[in-house]
Amino acid sequence: MSSDPITRAGAVLVVLNLPVPDDRRxxxxxxxxxxxxxxxxxxxxxxxxxxxxxxxxEGIDVVYFRSFEGTGKLSTVAxxxxxxxxxxxxxxxxxxxxxxxxxxxxxxPPDVLFGLLAWARRKGYATAYDQRDAAPVLAAxxxxxxxxxxxxxxxxxxxxxxxxxxVTPSVEQQERIGDLYGRDSVIVRTAEVLDASNxxxxxxxxxxxxxxxxxxxxxIGEQDGVGDLxxxxxxxxxxGVDGFRVEIAGxxxxxxxxxxxxxxxxxxxxxxxxxxxxxxxxxxxxxxxxAMIVPDPDIAFNHFCAMNKVTHAMARAIxxxxxxxxxxxxLVSGSGIVAKDMSxxxxxxxxVELLGLPPAARAxxxxxxxxxxxxxLSWRTSGPRYVEAVSPLHRPS
Length: 397
Description:
Strand content: 15-25%
Number of strands: 16
């Protein structure tokens, strides 16, 4: 980071769950504001191999604060308190280094940075709140956290009250914010998908027969349905369905349990766990798969999510097989293979439907998804809308 004490107008973005540039949403937003002429600082945790300190990446200042990832209830609460303190301290320093118009944006979860937003507003800075997830709904959906849902709702309300601008990736979340709080929000659908212009590669013949590679990409938590995906693979195998394998890319608190279950069921020849993928590795993973599998179950939180794995697949013209979650169904616009209901059996039948499609039909399905992405979801659509809403250079004086 530059050592000059005062520099030009700019923006400070704070995220608590992932570092950049791994956090694609925050990184795309930072790049868009940089290209708008602002000096941009991103404050984020030093996890996933990042080292505490500061550095400049592609013209964006990044502050990695020392952090840890909580697993149980107490450690998760401790993580939230610590990250709120460390991130707030770093963000205030970064904002003080700027002159002229400036904006502070905080992204959730958790919604613990309302105090920072209030401080920034008192200082006369513009404030923005990026509600990535409906945190109270998530808390209510998780065992051990449901009793904390009222607290998360209170935090959410405070964050919203101190935000001049609210952005969210989900129509379901936009409607919830309007219904509960009477606030308008701006839909910023997805982060940039690198190399999205590349068509999906053709699959090679494996052991003298075509193998369809089904992919899962994302966080592996208790609400993400990877356990259901393992059970579904076992069901397909017992029903004699073959000609496929599953590649699971991601990390999270439920990963160890999913590995154990796949091993217990003897599915190691059908299921491969790839672990967390870095920035360049995601594109290679998307090149390898023939379809994206979205096993997320029927819990309230999942209906609000515009899931990255869905939009990444759509951008690459990769067919998507999913359960009928409201926001995901909205995303695929009638072009995905949607299970008839939320049951495991219905999801398995949807996978069989995908496996039975001839190559031309799969290609048409992927092309339709890509068209929907370009029309409604791409960063070319969301990026300018985001800059117009958040950049202090576009706000009325």
